[in-house]
Amino acid sequence: MKVVEEMGSNNASSHVKGDHTLHIHKVGAPPKQKLVKGIKDAARETFFSDHPLCHLNDKPISRKLVLGLKAVFPILEWGRDYSFHKFRGDLVSGLTIASLCIPQDIAYAKLANLDPQYALYSSFVAPLVYAFMGSSRDIAIGPVAVVSLLLGSMLTDEISDYKSHDYLRLAFTATFFAGITQMAVGILRLGFLIDFLSHAAIVGFMAGAAITICLQQLKGLLGIVNFTKKTDIVSVLGSVFSRADHGWNWRTIVIGVAFLTFLLASKHMAKKNKKFFWLSATAPLISVVLCTFFVYVTRADKKGVPVARQVQKGVNPISANEIFFSGKYLGPGIRIGVVTGMIALTEAIAIGRTFAAVKDYSLDGNREMVAIGTINVIGSLTSCYVATGSFSRSAVNFMAGCHTAASNIVMSIVVLLALELITPLFKYIPTAVLSSIIIAAVIGLVDIEAAVLLWKIDKFDFIACMGAFLGVIFKNVVIGLLIAVVISFAKILLQVTRPRTAVLGRVPETSVYRNIQQYPKATLVPGMLIIRVDSAIYFSNSNYVKERILRCLIDEDVKKKENNLPRTEYLIVEMSPVTDIDTSGIRALQELYKSLQKREVKLALANPGTVVMEKFCASKFTDLIGEDKIFLTVADAVATFGPNIELP
Question: Least packed by Cβ within 10 Å: which of 57, 284, 425, 548?
Answer without folding.
Answer: 57
